[in-house]
Design goal:
By secondary structure, the protein is α/β, with parallel strands linked by helices. It has a single domain (58-303), classed as Aminopeptidase. The protein has helices at 2-23, 95-110, 129-136, 153-158, 197-209, 235-248, 265-271, 289-303; strands at residues 58-64, 70-76, 81-86, 119-124, 179-182, 185-188, 213-219, 223-226, 252-253, 276-281. The strands form 2 sheets. The protein has an 8-stranded mixed β-sheet, with helices on both faces. Strands 5-6 form a two-stranded antiparallel sheet. The longest helix has 22 residues, at 2-23. The chain is globular.
Length: 305
Amino acid sequence: MKKLIIVVIIVILVVLGIYFVTKSPSNTPVTPAPDVTTPGSIPLVTSTTMLPTPTNPDQTVIGQSVQGRDIVAYHYGQGATELLFVGGIHGGYEWNTALVAYQMMDYLKKNPSAVASNLKVTVIPVLNPDGLAKVIGASTTGAFLPTAVASSQETQVAGRFNGNTVDLNRNFDCDWQATGTWQKKKVSGGSVAFSEPESQAMKTYVETSKPAAVVVWYSSAGGVFASSCHNGVSPETNTLTKTFADASGYPAHQSFDFYAITGDMVNWLAKNNIPAISVLLTNHTDTEWSKNQAGIEAVLKSYAK
């Protein structure tokens, strides 16, 4: 009798074992994933989720302002050919030039493949942080909302200048003069060329990194302007001007001739045989991002290999 009971128990255990094994998830048939290479198949991931994960850019503090604020350069890519983009040289008066630079940084973080393997793209969003602080508040750092901008025209004009009340775009070594002109006003160009820590920081960075091309944002005239310093517009600068202008829709100009400018940064770059252009936004409030994105993409493609 005992043997019979043992046999029955063994049979029951075997039956239960077979049942659970056949119901195990490891043996459940799995529907094959669609072949994304087959026409008409449905991919499991979208092109958006397939993009490489954005990484934070490398950062370099290239100098400090009169009032001790960091001037930061952000780097995307590790290639040997560096392209430099600069905003905010006129601080709070041209605050939209800083914002368009921050928009470019957002674009590069989300689209790392836009920077070819041979390129290094550097963005200096605010070359005049003291001037910007006059308009958006001393405690604000990084990207900001237009609602943070002071509405007072007097405050915005004061934000054009650095902590020493110098117009930084009159402090570079091309036709430098101690007193420069802005529209019909006289402005300080500093005590000597590169007297200001901000322009000195830019000089040092350019001389060290030797960028292949430089794009600087200003406002407001709505155009792309080539650079030169009594040495003619170089073929490379002509190509850079046409590339950005054709893609963006801004008109192209061989020079800025609305009034005489001394100590201009892009003209100093031309003096040092570095292709450089001024991209002037149409007004002091809009970043015109779609136009500038198109211009940026065209420049990046033209230097990609």
